[in-house]
Write a structure and sequence with these properties.
The chain is α/β, with parallel strands linked by helices. The chain is about 50% helix and about 10% strand. It folds into 3 domains: about 70 residues, no CATH class; about 110 residues, no CATH class; about 200 residues, 3-Layer(aba) Sandwich (Rossmann fold).
Length: about 475
């Protein structure tokens, strides 16, 4: 690749990083071009770390960077892995379906490599295994590669017992040595899986184009994951993102007295000091300003239609519980119940969620969302919950299942509260469609689109201090 072609290739790589959510500015792109002249571009490790040093500013962006780097700067092109491959016993790739003997030889070689633990050799083995075992005819005349075919043929998890015997070499089972050996095996098998997936992604990119693969292969960043589509493995990252946002939200909603920084006028001290100036209050004295500690009431929809969002709302509730002087949390499906007791400061979120599902009274009729009845129960059972010092936060998709919306009761709550906001996990374009009453609720409360942590951060940032 010529120098101009290399620069154009780098520009495409930078554009892909930006599309994946990695912030790469003009200055970083110029620094990346300088890296090409400072490192040996043939050495992928130098090139990977050199470019990462100038374009990756946060650790959360590194997985996306590595996945895109493997697409734009692959270790090899076509079917061969490398001219100096060290895996001598691996049969060459061939278009026919691999035989049982081929798979057996590959498993034997894999067991030896997992014992050795050499990462580079394991990656080369993964490339050869994909070429040999992962090929399939997707459509007549067109081939594709699948990681599940490779992993099914190799079955690395079935080698654990054999590898343990080899690593322990007669040592007693059940002790620290076995724990270390098991952890080592898990890490090496995970590295193999990642190498196979990377090689499959590279080969698919050669066939279909890098841009097409990049759009589907790169996982969104934690702050860009839609709450309604969040999976179990996303919750830990979301929890790290939500906690600082809750602190900022508490600070933004903390009411400042409108009398200014000086506080209330201290009439007695002012009159006393005016005696020295003939009764003229030239200097005024004020009582110390004591900022109002915010109070918060959270109303959470935890019905099945917003299951992914429910996890987020409970995380946000637990985080806010740590920040506000007084937080009352209420959950509802078709009726409402107070769940503050489950979210005491320091409580485990998983345990609190399980207790809520078992002990809270959230179902009244059929277990489908009924906002009107939930607002009615909330107003009747806890009329004192919302007052002039309270910030009201409603979390839900506003889909009523064509039942009563309860707008008059919500309007009364908003009128009594100091602030009121509704965070809706659905896109704005869907508000008012079908059984959504979001457009109706938006007439009495500020409705905010909040599909991911990035939008939650934008909402918190725009809140003006009171």
């Amino acid at each position: 690749m010529t120098a101009p072609g290399l620069v154009d290739h780098l520009a495409d790589f930078v554009r892909a990083l930006r599309a994946a959510g990695v912030p790469v500015g003009v200055s970083e792109a110029i620094d990346a071009a300088a890296v090409l002249g400072a490192v040996d571009v043939v050495d992928r490790r130098q090139l990977r770390e050199g470019l990462a040093a100038v374009v990756v500013k946060r650790a959360v962006h590194r997985p996306s960077y590595d996945a895109l780097f493997d697409l734009w700067w692959p270790p090899s092109l076509g079917g061969s892995a490398a001219p100096d491959r060290e895996v001598d016993q691996v049969p060459p790739a061939h278009p026919q379906a691999p035989s049982e003997e081929t798979a057996r030889l590959l498993r034997e070689e894999l067991a030896r490599l997992l014992l050795d633990g050499d990462e580079e050799t394991l990656r080369r083995f993964a490339r050869e295994a994909v070429a040999t075992l992962g090929r399939a005819d997707a459509v007549p005349g067109r081939q594709s590669f699948f990681s599940y075919r490779v992993l099914r043929a190799l079955s690395p998890d079935t080698l654990v017992s054999r590898l343990l015997d080899a690593l322990l070499a007669g040592a007693d089972r059940g002790g620290l040595a076995e724990q270390v050996a098991r952890q080592t095996i898990r890490e090496r098998i995970a590295a193999l899986r990642a190498a196979i997936e990377d090689e499959v992604r590279r080969r698919v990119a050669e066939e279909r184009g890098r841009d097409s693969v990049a759009r589907t292969a790169i996982r969104p960043l934690a702050d860009q994951i839609d709450f309604l589509r969040a999976q179990q493995h996303d919750l830990a990252e979301l929890r790290k993102t939500v906690a600082p946002l809750a602190r900022r939200l508490a600070a933004r909603l903390a009411a400042k007295r409108r009398r200014g920084r000086s506080g209330r006028l201290d009439f007695r001290r002012t009159v006393r000091s005016s005696l020295a100036t003939g009764g003229v209050p030239i200097v005024t004295h004020h009582r110390p300003h004591r900022p109002h500690k915010p109070e918060l009431v959270v109303l959470c929809d935890v019905s099945g239609s917003v299951a992914g969002f429910s996890h987020f709302t409970l995380m946000l509730t637990a985080a806010l519980r740590e920040q506000f002087s007084r937080v009352r949390a209420f959950a509802f499906v078709d009726t409402c119940d107070e769940v503050t007791r489950f979210f005491a400061p320091g409580a485990d979120l998983v345990d609190a969620t399980q207790r809520l599902s078992r002990e809270a009274d959230l179902v009244w009729f059929d277990g489908h969302s009924d906002y009107g009845h939930a607002f009615e129960v909330f107003t009747e059972r806890w009329p004192e919950a919302v007052g002039p010092k309270t910030s009201l936060l409603v979390l839900g998709d506003a889909r009523t299942n064509y039942r009563s919306s309860g707008v008059p009761m919500l309007k009364a709550l908003v009128t009594r509260s100091r602030h009121a906001y509704w965070l809706n996990p659905e896109p704005r374009r869907q508000w008012g469609s079908g059984d959504s009453a979001a457009d109706v609720y938006a007439e009495v409360i500020e409705m905010v689109e909040c599909r991911n942590a990035d939008q939650l951060g934008a909402f918190v940032s725009r809140l003006l201090p009171v």
